[in-house]
Design goal:
Elements (H helix, E strand, L loop, with lengths): L5 H22 L4 H11 L11 H21 L3 H6 L1 H25 L4 H12 L3 H10 L6 H31 L9 H38 L4 H23 L3 H12 L5 H25 L5 H4 L1 H25 L4 H10 L5 H12 L5 H37 L24 E4 L3 H12 L4 E5 L2 H9 L3 E4 L5 H5 L8 E4 L4 H14 L4 E6 L2 H9 L4 E4 H16 L15
Helix pairs in contact: 1-2, 1-12, 2-12, 3-10, 3-11, 3-12, 5-6, 5-8, 5-14, 6-8, 6-16, 7-8, 8-9, 8-15, 8-16, 9-10, 9-11, 10-11, 14-15, 14-17, 15-17, 16-17, 21-22
Length: about 575
Amino acid sequence: MSHESPLIAILVIGLCLAFILGTIANRLKISLLVGYLLAGVAVGPFTPGFVADQGLALQLAEIGVILLMFGVGLHFSVSDLIAVRAVAIPGALIQIALSTAMGMGVAWLLGLPLGAELVFGLALSVASTVVLLRTLQERRIMDTERGHIAVGWLVIQDLVTVLALVLLPVMAPLLSHNAPTTLSLSGLSFTVAVTLGKVVAFVALMLVIGRRVIPAVLHYVAHTGSRELFRLSVLAVALGVAFVASELFGVSFAVGAFVAGMVLSESKLSQRAAEETLPLRDAFAVLFFISVGMLFDPTVLIRDPVPLLETLAVVVLGTPAVAFLTLCLLRQTSGTALTIAAGLAQIGEFSFILAALGIGLGLLDERGRDLLLGASILSILLNPLLFLVAGRLKTWADRRNEVPSAAKHAAPPPPVEHPVTKLQGHAVLVGYGRVGSLLAEGLLRNGWKLLVMEAGDAAVQPLRDRGVEVRTGNAADPEMLKSAHLAMARLLLVAIPDAFEAGQIVEQARAANPDIEIIARAHFDTAVEHLRQHGATTVVMGEREIARAMLEHAADGGSAEPQANAVVQGAS
């Protein structure tokens, strides 16, 4: 292998291995992240064979974090952040403080000095943004109240990490066990004030100027009619704002990209911007997990098994317990508390950055870094299991809460999370986005009895206000789909763009009701065939329908006077 093309080598070998091992993980019904992490271990310096360039891998992974946080910002407005501030701010600060204290306790048991204890504890207190956001997206709870609180929690963690990255170099002389100097209180206060001032200045600049400039630029590009140019403009905004935030204001790339997306979320082009960046977000997120795997030395499992288990316990037991109790004290439901606690039971990219800074300042040694990396990978592997346990505990807690305190002797039957509808001869609509909202309006105008399934709570609230039955969650979940009572339904419309998920829904629906009419949407010819094979009656491909409507309109115009105000609308 030529050493003159390390970037190509990382992309080709890393992504191919991630694909192979990810496919195997999917076949074994385990998280895809397992395959991606193992791909990183395989191309890392601690295993035989090809060794990828770690520096390049980390930079590529950073781009993934930027794009992912930009996408989250597109779905998380300022009003959402303000709405959860009473929970996210105190909750995150309490959790960081207590998790850091537990991590410092483990470091003290290992005999590390004070500076190493602080770096070690801080690194164990901040969750991986990539892992948690990906989990929220996969479980389709990003747009729920739980998702908003979790994202707000992550933003506070990121801001605290930024502050730590600025303060650690200042405090290093005091924290170093052999340093003769002391830390000036006035110098520390000045540094803190400058750091907070930079963050406030950046956010204010984005809210005052960016809110006007960024949407205006994207609207101008959109009116050029060039999809390629629009996609490029979105990427330029995401990466450019993140870079400016880091270089001029000292704010992390992730926070800068998040604020840029949050500003753009108020524009009508926010959904299109999210769709255009999705493929790159997915690809670079895979590269992030590969880069994490490359840093892991598997021999730490043999060299330091007990310290590794102690470190892991802080992440997967200590932090979730603290988060759960804190959220309960803040009067959140057990379901919300369990979901967020499980999501925080892992560490990732910011932990690596803190560890690298600690090593550079002479505060942390390589043993501490290896323990952090080992705990990170193991916690990411265990995270799906923790979500499963959280789900079981939520069901148990819900059943207990349903029992009236004054009538425990006559306990009611366990509640059904997705109650089966009593509708008959109804239509079921899966997906309430751009296409789904148009379909819902048309069905209601035509007098259909309607049940809508959508991942997020916020989007379907207007339907609830109108008395339409709504189920929120993943429609591919058999329990969720069972609640639609498809055996008595006449029509199923699958309006989500994901062909694989749509195929699962169609297949289950056809098994539940062989006579039901199923209409699905698709973007590609292969998706059309895929959905038909799984049982769809009709598959509508957006591009074809747009062309057909245009041709019909052209044919009508050939024999009649043109109508200046006539508009043919199509959504795909």
